[in-house]
Amino acid sequence: xxxxxxxAEFAAALDEQDALRDFRQRFHLPLAPDGQPSVYLxxxxxxxxxxxxxxxxxxEFESWETQGVEGHFHGTSPWMHYHESLTDSAARLVGxxxxxxxxxxxxxxxxxxxxxxxxxxxxxxxxxxxxxxxFPSDQYALESQVRLHGLAPDEAIVELVPRPGExxxxxxxxxxAIQELGESLAVVILGGVNxxxxxxxxxxxxxxxxxxVGANVGFDLAHAAGNLEMxxxxxxxxxxxxxxxxxxxSGPGGTxxxxxxxxxxxxxxxxxxxxxxxxxxxxxxxxKKGFRPMTGAAxxxxxxxxxxxxxxxxxxxxxxxxxxxxxxxxxKSEKLTAYLEFMVRQLELPREVLEIITPHDPAARGCQxxxxxxxxxxxxxxxxxxxxxxxxxxxxxxxxxAPVPLYNSFSDVQRVGEVLARWASV
Length: 426
Ligand SMILES: *Cc1c(COP(=O)(O)O)cnc(C)c1O
Description:
Catalyzes the cleavage of L-kynurenine (L-Kyn) and L-3-hydroxykynurenine (L-3OHKyn) into anthranilic acid (AA) and 3-hydroxyanthranilic acid (3-OHAA), respectively. InterPro entries: Kynureninase, PyrdxlP-dep_Trfase, PyrdxlP-dep_Trfase_major, PyrdxlP-dep_Trfase_small. It holds the Pfam family KYNU_C. By secondary structure, the chain is of the alpha/beta class. Helix content is 36%, strand content 14%. It has helices spanning 8-17, 52-67, 84-94, 107-118, 136-148, 153-156, 171-181, 203-212, 232-235, 307-322, 325-345, 377-386, 410-424, and strands at 27-28, 39-40, 49-50, 101-104, 127-131, 157-160, 185-191, 216-220, 239-243, 256-260, 354-356, 369-373, 389-390, 392-394, 398-401. The strands form 4 sheets. It has a 7-stranded mixed β-sheet, with helices on both faces. Strands 11-12-15-14 form a 4-stranded antiparallel β-sheet, covered by helices on one side. The protein has a two-stranded antiparallel sheet with strand order 1-3. A hairpin with a 3-residue loop joins strand 14 (392-394) and strand 15. Helix 2 (52-67) packs antiparallel against helix 10 (307-322), helix 4 (107-118) runs parallel beside helix 5 (136-148) and helix 11 runs parallel beside helix 13. It binds pyridoxal-5'-phosphate (PLP). Pyridoxal-5'-phosphate is lined by residues 106-108, 135, 137-138, 191, 195, 220, 222-223, 243.
């Protein structure tokens, strides 16, 4: 148990001891109206720009400018194999083997591609279990997947909701729902971290429960990648995908990552939507009939690589690796978020005013704290913005604050507490 103090001096001392403190210099911090760097707590929505991003993209412009099509084969990083240069870092990020990971496309696209393979309902096994109030894109993706198979979303999709009076789901309730659905359950698809509440799910326990009834289990890791330390391979997760522009700082609309467990690596029979980039590279350019998928997650690729977003992603992943990977980031992250929670709680605001709905247990959350503001939430959000704090507002009344270990400091968090105290006193 760490005991915190709410003072600027205490926060500065924590920053002094922070082994990752210099990584803040690797990012461009947006400036507040007063010309000072903002307190940027919005990395859960769009991570900040790594200073290395511009040169990484510039290098590919250079190849294109000077070599044209030859850039596929020449230059420091020939485009033909560019995506492969991301695989090892992406695998480390989620606790996977390289064969289990590929970087391609965008998140919702990848979710659809994976569901084509991992949601193949039949007359008895056709149900989907997901969290109630999942991110809209996930809801729409699942509804349309269900319709694709001629089923009705109302009948096929089962949504988990918290118990009355609670804001987050209990693992035991998720497990019970899985058991109850039994052999009607085709797939479980949850966020690794719920975007709204900030709750991190027990992916290992949920996977185990899903497998026990014969269902496939997948996770949308949009809010988990770059936030949690994960072991997807060991947890035996079937499939997962994530975006790179939130905690992975790879730029707006950036590319996405995919995980497919090794046990599906050599399953050419597993139905998928196919494209030439997923075809065996040995004869990809023979332009012959007959799709033969590559081994592993790479066999789900459709198109040749998007070099520009991947260039940014590679630079951004290199920072994560340099910082010591997710274990190191997570160590700081837990402390940073605990400090934020302390700063909010020591204000002793009544629950009718402001309530943290994110779990208190570090194992059940990432870096984000979601505050339910019962009155004048929007006004508080604007007040924070006026004080140079960039947070995130979600309808109807939640403010999300995400201090991230790569570029946020304990002093950032202390400043949030001070501004909240000022707001509470007026
Ligand atoms: C951010 C987010 C998305 C966004 O999807 P894109 O395809 O990248 O636009 C989807 N699902 C979840 C859970 C998210 O958090």
